[in-house]
Structure formats: structure tokens, C-alpha cells
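Researcher: I'm preparing a figure for a lab meeting and need a structural model of a single chain. I don't have an experimental structure, so a prediction will have to do for now. The sequence is pasted below. Please return the structure as C-alpha cells so I can convert it later.
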Amino acid sequence: MIMASTGESIEPEDAYREEGEGGDAEIRASDQTNGWASSIHARPVSSSTAAAATPRSSLGSHSSLLAQSQSSSLLSWFGVAERVGFVAESKRLGKRRAARAWYRRKVYVVLAVIGLLACFLAMNWWMISQIQDSNHGMKYKFLRSNSSTLSIREELKNLGKVKKPQKTIYARLLAKAAHALAENKREPRDLWEEPYILASAWRPCADQRDWEPTEKNNGYILVSANGGINQQRVAVCNAVAVSRLLNATLVVPKFLYSSVWRDISQFSDIYQEEHFINYLKPDIPIVKELPVELQSLDLEAIGSVVTDADIVKEAKPSFYLKFILPILHRNKVVHFVGFGNRLSSDPLPFQLQRLRCRCNFHALHFVPKIQEAGALLLQRMRHRTRYGELDPYLVGPFAQPKTKAKRGPSVKDSRYLALHLRFEIDMVAHSLCYFGGGEEEKRELEAYREIHFPGLTDLKKTTKVPSPAALRAEGLCPLMPEETVLMLAGLGFNRKTHIFLAGAHIYGGKSRLAILNSLYPNLVTKENLLSSSEIAPFMNFSSQLAALDFIACTAADVFAMTDSGSQLSSLVSGYRVYYGGGRMPTIRPNKRRLADIFLKNDTMEWKVFEGRVRKAVRQTKRIRSRPVGRSVYRYPRCKECMCLTE
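Model: Understood. Here is the structure written out cell by cell.
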């Protein structure tokens, strides 16, 4: 930039323009000088001509003519020299002018390129802003070739934060899945079926008793169960077995308030208390509260409080006989606080194992309020066309049809798939996996771990944990909604399939479920099926809401889980085995094999993907008896719970 004498800034192109005008003035002056030299050079020629025309008599003054001739020659020489000088000067100035013109053109080209680049960047910024604006509020565009939009999680919406759209690594397969579903192909023949012949060979028999309660009473057992409804259910059944083992009277269990579940519901709010007491009376005595003389005892002071920290996981019966029975003899009361998964599956005496099954499958009936709402869910999922075999065990007297069942093709269309998408924030955070949310996701999940899983946070600081990629490859990550919808489409479920989605608050909110809704539009939840007045009595009671999910999932024509380690999935699948009669298939994916399939999503064609998914899931449908050491609540096909017919 050049500064003029006035102090104003002059842009370079203006300076070049002024310099160019000065050069042109010098060239014009040179042209005038050359004209003057030409006129001087022309004079001797005129004098010579005039002299030739003069008569000889006039040549008398010879000396003056000679002087004039010499003077004229000298002037002619100077004129030639001057002309040569001016020509050289003119060429030099021409080169300078050409150089300045070339420099000006170069500057103009550079400025033009800069201008075009600026226009391109401005246009690009405008287009991106328009795309972002158009994507705001969109659920999911699964037909895009390389990206998809997943909006902010509901938790962050409440904080007023904005999340950038996420990219999915499965965009290519999702587009192929959408195309395959649009073709409306016929579903595989065995999709809605279980290997009937083998499965139907097992029948329930845990209600059979071969003993009588002993008259000896060593004291009372109190249980305060923690966790959600499913963990509490397991704790109750284990407490029943331990009470029989120690010849003690069981006080109706209490449920601890959880900072995660935030439900104040107690046993009588979920289960029929009188049925529980009366049905198990031939096995153990059960009372609603401690005798008056024991209520005033400070149980902690006398050493009668036993927590989960005092009992190893999967403790054997010998542990209770050695350490708990002496406390019971001494203080007449033992209070188990927590009691999560504190009784082994094996080895356990035959009758104690059968008692566990009897408690889970026969003694625990939901209260009428939950049964009635559960019956409404089943009726609306089936469009009131038929009623399932498990309905009497789940909803009791409300299983009776209110309208006559229809016949014909509509009956076939009334079947539905129940899906338990275990993708709540507690599961996501505890898995230590990555789900595509970038740095914001990592910060959020780490903050959640620090509050709810401090031990896990400390472990990460002191121990090298596997990377998220390694965890996913080993099948240790919960299936994302994107992976779940690919599994369902790969198995061959039709786009018109009616799906009941169970679960609490899905991590990521509705936006994370957008792809599932897009490919399977007939997807509903209990909140969709029940009116506001019908679901109002259960709001703010997560355990009671989970009981409704339990009913809808257990009675479904097909139940699909995404995490086989989930307590709800385990209890539902076990209940379906126990009462299903070989007609209640359950999809239990092998996440390790699915992870290997998903890793090849960039190159795999859809037909190959379908074949591999179906093979991986078909193997989990095999009928087998309970493996040693596994839970009878999940695998009831064993001689303690079910009888095998020949």
C-alpha cells in the first residue's frame, strides 16, 4: 500500500495507474523532439535544391557556399545522432512500459483469483448454513449416501446445549435395508416360529412340592432389595430360598429407593401380597412385619445387618450355614441390605432350586392395577383379534376377551414383535464403549460415571482398560438403534411389522430412534398405546412402568433383545420358555458375531449381510437345557423347574 502526501492510502492498482500515466507523458515529449529533429535535417536538402536552381553567375561567393555546405552537413550529422538517441530512448521506455503493463496484468490476475476464492468460500458457507438450518429438527435421512443426522440428546436439550449432527458408519447398509424393505419381500418361513418339537417337550412343573415346612423357626429374615424391578424380583426369590435353607420366617421384602430408578414403590404396589404369602405358605412362613418385641432392636448395633459387601457374589449354601445362621441363632433376626445376586445357581439342593422357580413363575403376580393396564396394551397391539397363551399368567382375570375374536387374514396381521432396546444412559456409560457422539458424548458419559459408577472411574485411572473398538469387537457393547434395525431387517421382518418398544429413556432421545421409526413405522411404546389418563397412575414410578413392559414383552409373538445380560430380557425370555409351550420364539443375538459382520459393512452386499445375520441368530434359537451355573430364571429348562416329556 502506498501513502500519498495527504495521508490517504492508495491501493496498489491506483499507484500503478498514476505511474502509467507519467510514462505516457514522457513518450509524447520524445515524439515532439523527434519531429523537431526531422525538420532540422530537412533544411540542407532544401538549400541544395535552391542552389542548383540558381544561375552560375550567382556563385561568385564560393566561400560562403562552402561554409554553408559544411554547416549543413554538421547539422545533418547531429540530427542523425540525435534521432538514433531518441530511438534508443524510445525503445527503452517502451520496454519499461511493457514491463509495467505485464506487472499490472499479473496483479489483476492475482486479485481476480483472490476474489473468486472469496466468492467460493462465501457461497460454501452459505450452503452449509442452509443445510444446517434445513436439518434442524429433522429426524433422520437414511437415504443420504454418506451421512445422517442424529439430533441432540434429550438431557442436553434441557440444558439448552446444541449438538452437532452425528455421522453413522452404517449409512450404506441402512440405505440398502430401506431398499430391501421397500420391495416387501416374503418373510422367512421360520421367522415367527420356535423349533416346536424340541421346545414343546418341556412343560412347567415347579408348582409340584415334595416337602412340608419345618416346625423349627430359627428367627426372622428381613430383605431390603436394591436396583430396579427386575433386580428386586431376583432378590425376592433368592431370599425365599435362603429363608427355607435357614429355617427362618421371611418378612415381606422391602424395596430400597434408588437414585437411578427414583421409585418409591414397595412390594405391595407391584405384586399381590396376599397371593405371595398364601402360595408359599407350604414352603416357608411369611409375615408382613417383625414381631413387636423385635421391632425396637438396633439391628446394626447388635450386628444383624448384612450388606452385599459382606457376602460374595454367587455365595453357596455353605456360606449361609456357616456365617449367617449363627447370627440368626444369636439375635433372632438378620437384615440383608441389597442382596443382589447373592445366591449361587449351582450347586444348590434340588428342592431349593425348585422353590426359586416356584417363587418366580407362580408366586409373583402383578397387582390388578398393573394387570388391567397390561391387558389394554395386549389388546391394542393385537387389535383385539386374539389372546395369547401367557395372558392368564400375566394379566389374570383381565385376560378374558371383551370382544369376540375375529377370524381370517386379520388374525395373522395382529401378531407383533416386542423389542427391548437396552440403550439407557446407565448401560451406555457402564459399557465404556463409543457410540459416535464425538467429544461431547465422551464428556457426558464420563461425568455420569463419576456420579453413578465411581469405582469404574477409579479403575480407568489405575488400570489400562480395553479400547472402545476392542470392546465392540468382543461383543461387549450394547447394540445401537442403527445396529438393531439392521439386525431386524437382515432377519427379514417386514416393513409393516408391528413392534412394541420396551425400555426407559433411550440415550439420545427420540432422535436416536428416528432410523428405527423410519424403517419400521408401526413402532409404538406404552406411552403411545395408553391414553394420558390410563398411564397417569404409573407416571413417576419406573418399576411399575417396567412391569407394563414386562407384560407386553412376555406375551409378544416374538421377543427380541439387544443385550442378553439385561435382567428384563433374562426374566422375559425365561418366562416365555416356562409358559410358552414351544410357540414363543426369542431372538437373542450373538453380539460378538454381529460386531464382526458390522465391521465389514463398507464392502458387504445386502444378500450376504442377510445370510450372515440369519445364521448368527438362528444358532441362538437352539433348544437346550440349562447350562451348569446359569440362572434358572433365564434358563428354566432343567429338571428342578420343568419336566421333560418322552
